[in-house]
Structures are given as C-alpha cells and as structure tokens.
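Q: My labmate handed me this sequence with no annotations at all. I'd like to see what the chain might look like in three dimensions before we decide whether it's worth expressing. Could you predict it?
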Amino acid sequence: MRAVLTILVAALLVVVLAVVQIPLIRFWPARAGVLPHLYHRALARLLDIKLDIEGRLAAGPVLIVANHVSWLDITILSALGELSFIAKQEVAGWPGFGTMARLQRTVFVNRERRRQTIDAKHEIERRFDAGDRIVLFAEGTSSDGNRILPFRTSLFAVASYRPRGLDPVPVQPLSLIYVRLHGLPISRPQRPKFAWYGDMSMLPHIWAILRAGPIDVKIVLHEPVTLDDFANRKELAMYCEARVRAGFLSSLLGRPVRPDQAGRAAPAVAAAP
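A: Here is what I predict for the chain of 273 residues:
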C-alpha cells in the first residue's frame, strides 16, 4: 500500500509541477531549478530517505563530480539543492525518466556523434555562464554500490571553461554511499539491492526500492578545486576519483581513509585538504 501510494503521489506531483516548469524553462530559466529541487525533497521524504550530509554544496557555477549507484541518486542529490545533470543520450528516451530529466534541464551527451558532443559541451558552458550547478557521474555508468569505478576523463574538459571570462569553473567531488536500511548497517551482499546496474530491469528494481523501507544515505561534499591546480584534466580526474573513493571508504569502514590510501594514487594540489 505504501509503495502504491508513493507511485501515485509522485506521478501526480510530476503532472502538476510540469504545468509550471515548462514555461519556466522557456521564459525564466534562472528559476527553473526550484521546482525540481522541491519535488525531489518531497520524493525523498515519501521514500523515507534520510540524508547525512558532510560538507557544504558549493554555490554555482560548479561542476559536481560524483559516483553513481542507482537511478535513486538523482532524487538524493537533487534534494540537496538546485542541480542539473549530465546524462547519456539514451536516458532521453526512457519512459517517464526521460520526461523528468528534460524537466530538470538535463544535458544529454551522445559520445558516438562528435557534433552532438560538441553541442552538449557548449550547452554546459552556457549553463555555467548562467550560474548553474551541474552534476557529472564520472564513472560513466552505475556500479554495484560496493566500489568506485575508474573515472572517465573526457567530460572533465568542461572544467577548463571560464564562466564570464573569469577563473575556471570550480569542480567539487562528491561521495554518495547507501549506509543503513531500517537503521541497521547495509552489508556488502545487501548493497547491490539498491544499485541499478548491468542489465537489470527498471520496473522490478523501482518496486523493490519502494518496498524497502527507511534508507540512510551519506553524502560527503569535498572541497572544490579548479583545473588551474593541475597539469591537465586527467590529473584533475584522478584527484576527484581519489577524493570520492576516500569519502566512500571512510563512510563504509567508519574510520578516516586518506585519498592516498584509497586504492589509486592522486596528484597533489595546492591548498587541498
């Protein structure tokens, strides 16, 4: 009953908010992030998701670089503030999810077509000029929730952009970890139940999450850096990956883990914690 009610309320909210959101996107894009943020905050409450947030979300413009576990990550991160996302082109065609992604002004990237990739890069740059905060799931896909996959470096190229001709856009690493279910620590075998990866079917996974019960999620917001602190975008990607993995492991192990202990070496950066 709870799961069915959640689906009905969530769907009704999408319909009602879309009536306002579509004109906002067209005529007042500077305020088009408010309704998706409020919607996902409400959805997180409906799903009984409790967020434990460490650190502070940087003010825009900023590129937020996060690990990716599940479709549920969108709701969790959007509950933090007014955010948009970078997603692969296929997401635009997913029933329901594609519509919601467009309402949240997701930037779709088709890596198979160079022209469309360039267009997406220019769209991201325009959004930075407008002061937007944009999330990049740098692994390029979702994981099983027990590990951080290697970060792909190609889209880190947008970190070289200088909004309004000033400093390079800040890049903020973010670690996302599913830590408790019904108040009890989620074990390694349990964690993939929250992850959506591989060839999993969407609808059965959504239904399982809706029936799961209270979930505690840890968010670690690391200090922002810029591309100027590194030799190139690959070193920036390595640095972000090490920070995200260290925050991930620290939350799972219950003790601090330094980036240089997190499995892959990270380049040094001036003034980094």
